[in-house]
Specification:
Length: 130
Amino acid sequence: MPAGPDIILTLKVLVAAVTLLLLASLVALAAGKPRLHGRLNAAFFVLTMLTVAGFEALLQFVDVKSAFDPAAREALRVHLYFAVPSAIILPAMFLSGWAGWKRLHLALSVVFSALWAGTFVTGVFFLPHG
Ligand code: HEM
């Protein structure tokens, strides 16, 4: 069974990697390539959902109390306050973009961007892995 710090380090790498995809998709959008934006975000969508599902599944097998100290548990809890709502909105982001519901897509993108910023900061900077 992987140790707590290993789990957290893996989570950080995955959060950073999918965030790069999201940023690349926004660059594609700014460069006038909405199709590329859609493709990059299809990858972002699948990888993020796999990360969340994999992490949740892993937590079922790990004894959370012994794997993480109280500070790490608290940091994880705060991280999940952002990550779980992000994952809930993500299918709606994908659907609204894919279906061309531009107003809805843009409205959701404001909420999603705020939640993802929280997911990134709490995931990459505040989770202790040392
Ligand atoms: C976070 C900020 C985001 C902004 C500002 C944004 C904005 C946009 C805009 C302006 C379009 C073009 C709409 C049109 O011309 O009809 C678009 C298309 C699209 N977006 Fe986003 N988006 C964001 C995030 C996402 C995310 C997270 C996903 C998926 C999970 C996504 C999936 C798509 C898809 C699939 C399309 C259609 C691409 C195509 O035409 O083939 N977007 N987005």
